[in-house]
């Protein structure tokens, strides 16, 4: 199938985008007859189709979901078992309906809460809103949600959707999760760090209640795709299979490999736009905010050029984790009759959430993942291939409500070479934060019952890191008073150490600001067509001390601006990312107050801020060599200053970095100039602190 004509003038607007730098040859797709999922044309599906047409009430639509149809058998099984694994196909209604059925049937008792965890904030918020709507209540009363920066619950809340990270934090102050009668671990196949920790924490809470003769805790583990044998063994529980509302799904693979997957995806989207009927919306999976923003600009340019022609009007929506919740929810609204919606998303749209109207999915086959290398001690961020399980999850987004098509921007051979399942995050990330959280709950990470135990080397490195930061001591490791304070902050322990060290260096205000900005996406815009203006705007805030002080300069100017949105636009800054940074800062400031940290500002003496950073990130140092290249001090890894850094083009003898980004070469991002004399003052350096 031909989906893009290079000579077509309708695509000329893309020439201005950085996505057009490597124009691919024509993207040709071939349908995969073996892998195309067949529909189960039963009565339920026929009814579901009619329900869409006649726009029947929400209540009647619920009755068509497989979970509702099978509710009696499902409730019997849930009552019989203290732990149950539910494998429910996409569209079965498990995430929205099971909590409502449990409440209605009295499984949670007269006052117990049903907690449903989600790996992502957007899923927790949107599903809670949907369930509140079905219950005919406002979110925050009977049905609520709790995510970072937003607690929309009350004492009356009986159904509570929350991110798995939030439930882990709740367990730190309440190890038996006493607020809950039922805990549902949804999207268990995602295997995020917090999900894996929660598996063990929830099981432990269940056992502790049994030992103390307290009311029991019921555990439900739910997913659309998982390895049932592994889950059954770990939880010592039976598995129940639910069929979904299946709609026909056709899969097309690219005939040849694509060099520029982002451009190939956009070209495919506009070919679909020219051929498909209105209101058949399109979803493209990309890797991160920067890529999505660039693609959004390019897509809007093309859409503008097509305006007034015979094609439906096109509205383009970005979707990624750092977007404020209200903007994320914009993408979920149905497109107006006669229009089309194009959503450019990271893997936040991969699971849980049904985005109404999607009939075409374009899967680029890649994801941005952070991997920790215990041997070098570095966290490396790189774009990598997804697994086959993720590819099927993505494809399934096209057939949630009606028949759909998935275009894979990779060949069938490339698909077959992909791993079956993604590597659990716990096996590839830094475990220092996990170790600290577990110790705060009262659990030793070295003996914790993980479903997939992380490598011993990673655990040793994590405990060693916490010892050096002064958070733990002894064997088995015990939390120190400092460690207990550190566990209050939902941050990498090294960043928390920076905050605590900033008290001594009299720069707490500045440390909170910079760490808040580092915990989100970049605040600097890099429009492909206005690179020079953006560079000039950035240089107004640039500090010879490095990127951390530059971030501080930007935030101070942002705070004093009256028309913040206009000011950001003029200075090529991301308003929403600065807004997000402000929210994070407020939360961190509240936590600092709770920890009784003394407020102080270093004013213009920003050397103090760099000294505080050195205390937390002392292992993240790179030294200038005789040949004018940089090598990391601890792991002797050759590295280069990232072009986006304020220090690009300069050669300070010693640098502190925040992260390493691998794109062929290893680039350092988030830099500060360090005075070598500070290392001896604080007894920091290779071989020290051991």
Automatic annotation (TrEMBL):
Show the InterPro entries listed in the entry: AAA+_ATPase, AAA_22, DEAD-box_helicase_OB_fold, DNA/RNA_helicase_DEAH_CS, HA2_WH, Helicase-assoc_dom, Helicase_ATP-bd, Helicase_C-like
| CDD domains reported for this sequence | DEXHc_DHX33 (cd17978), SF2_C_RHA (cd18791)
Q: Mind telling me which SMART domains this protein's record contains? A: AAA (SM00382), DEXDc (SM00487), HA2 (SM00847), HELICc (SM00490)
* Reactions the enzyme catalyzes: ATP + H2O = ADP + phosphate + H(+)
Highest taxon in the source lineage = Eukaryota
Q: Which GO terms describe its molecular function?
A: ATP binding; ATP hydrolysis activity; double-stranded RNA binding; RNA helicase activity
Q: Might you give the EC number(s) for this enzyme?
A: 3.6.4.13
Query: What keywords is this UniProt entry annotated with?
Result: ATP-binding, Helicase, Hydrolase, Nucleotide-binding
Instruction: Spell out the GO cellular component terms annotated for this protein, sorted alphabetically and separated by semicolons.
Output: nucleolus
The residue ranges of the Helicase C-terminal domain are 265-442
Q: List each copy of the Helicase ATP-binding domain by range.
A: 75-244
Any one GO BP annotation for this protein: positive regulation of transcription by RNA polymerase I
Q: Provide the transmembrane region boundaries.
A: none
Name of the protein described by the UniProt record: RNA helicase
Which organism encodes this protein?
Pseudoatta argentina
């Amino acid at each position: 199938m031909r989906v893009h004509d290079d000579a077509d003038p309708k695509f000329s607007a893309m020439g201005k985008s950085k996505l057009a730098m490597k124009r691919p040859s024509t993207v040709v797709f071939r349908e995969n007859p073996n892998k195309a999922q067949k529909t189960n044309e039963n009565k339920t599906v026929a009814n579901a189709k009619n329900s869409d047409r006649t726009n029947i009430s929400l209540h009647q639509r619920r009755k068509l979901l497989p979970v509702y149809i099978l509710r009696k058998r499902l409730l019997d099984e849930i009552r019989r078992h203290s732990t149950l694994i539910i494998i429910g196909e996409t569209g079965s209604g498990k995430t929205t309906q099971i909590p409502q059925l449990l409440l209605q049937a009295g499984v949670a008792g007269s006052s117990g809460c049903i907690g449903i965890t989600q790996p992502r904030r957007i899923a927790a918020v949107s599903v809670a809103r949907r369930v509140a709507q079905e219950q005919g209540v406002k979110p925050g009363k009977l049905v609520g949600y709790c995510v970072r920066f937003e607690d929309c619950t009350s004492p009356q809340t009986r159904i509570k959707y929350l991110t798995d990270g939030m439930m882990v934090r709740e367990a730190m102050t309440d190890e038996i999760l006493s607020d809950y009668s039922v805990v549902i671990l949804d999207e268990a196949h995602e295997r995020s760090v917090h999900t894996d920790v929660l598996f063990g924490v929830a099981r432990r809470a269940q056992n502790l209640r049994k030992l103390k003769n307290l009311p029991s805790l019921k555990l439900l583990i739910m997913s659309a795709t998982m390895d049932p044998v592994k889950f059954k063994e770990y939880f010592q529980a039976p598995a129940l299979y639910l069929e979904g509302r299946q709609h026909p799904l056709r899969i097309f693979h690219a005939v040849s490999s694509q060099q520029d997957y982002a451009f190939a995806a956009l070209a495919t989207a506009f070919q679909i736009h020219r051929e498909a009927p209105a209101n058949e919306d399109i979803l493209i999976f990309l890797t991160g905010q920067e890529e999505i923003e660039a693609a959004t600009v390019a897509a809007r340019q093309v859409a503008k050029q097509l305006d007034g022609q015979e094609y439906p009007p096109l509205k383009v929506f970005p979707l990624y984790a750092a977007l404020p919740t209200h903007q994320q929810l914009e993408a979920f609204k149905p497109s107006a009759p006669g229009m089309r919606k194009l959503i450019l998303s990271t893997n936040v749209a991969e699971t849980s959430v049904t985005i109404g109207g999607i009939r075409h999915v374009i899967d680029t086959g890649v994801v941005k993942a952070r991997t920790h290398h215990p041997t070098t001690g570095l966290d490396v961020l790189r774009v990598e291939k997804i697994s086959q399980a993720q590819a099927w999850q993505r494809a399934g987004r096209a057939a949630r409500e009606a028949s759909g098509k998935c275009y894979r921007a990779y060949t069938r051979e490339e698909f077959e070479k992909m791993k079956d399942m993604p590597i659990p995050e716990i096996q590839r990330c830094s475990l220092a934060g996990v170790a600290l959280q577990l110790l705060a709950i009262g659990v030793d990470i070295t003996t914790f019952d993980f479903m997939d135990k992380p490598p011993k080397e990673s655990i040793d490195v994590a405990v060693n890191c916490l010892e050096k930061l002064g958070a733990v001591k002894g064997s088995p490791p015990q939390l120190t008073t400092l460690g207990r304070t550190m566990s209050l902050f939902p941050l990498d322990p090294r960043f928390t150490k920076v905050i605590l060290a900033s008290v001594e260096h009299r720069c707490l205000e500045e440390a909170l600001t910079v760490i808040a900005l580092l915990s989100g996406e970049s605040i600097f815009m890099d429009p492909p067509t206005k690179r020079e203006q953006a560079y000039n705007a950035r240089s107004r805030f640039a500090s010879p001390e490095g990127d951390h002080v530059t971030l501080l300069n930007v935030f101070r100017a942002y705070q004093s601006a009256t028309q913040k949105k206009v000011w950001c636009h003029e200075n090529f800054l991301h308003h929403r990312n600065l807004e997000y940074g402000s929210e994070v800062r407020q939360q961190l400031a509240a936590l600092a107050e709770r920890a009784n940290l003394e407020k102080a500002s270093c004013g213009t003496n920003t050397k103090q801020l760099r000294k505080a950073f050195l205390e937390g990130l002392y292992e993240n140092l790179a030294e200038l060599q005789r040949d004018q290249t940089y090598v990391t001090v601890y792991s002797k890894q050759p590295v280069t200053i990232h072009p986006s850094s304020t220090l690009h083009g300069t050669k300070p003898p010693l640098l502190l970095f925040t992260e390493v980004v691998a794109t062929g070469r290893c680039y350092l991002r988030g830099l500060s100039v360090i005075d070598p004399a500070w290392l001896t003052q604080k007894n920091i350096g290779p071989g020290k602190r051991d």
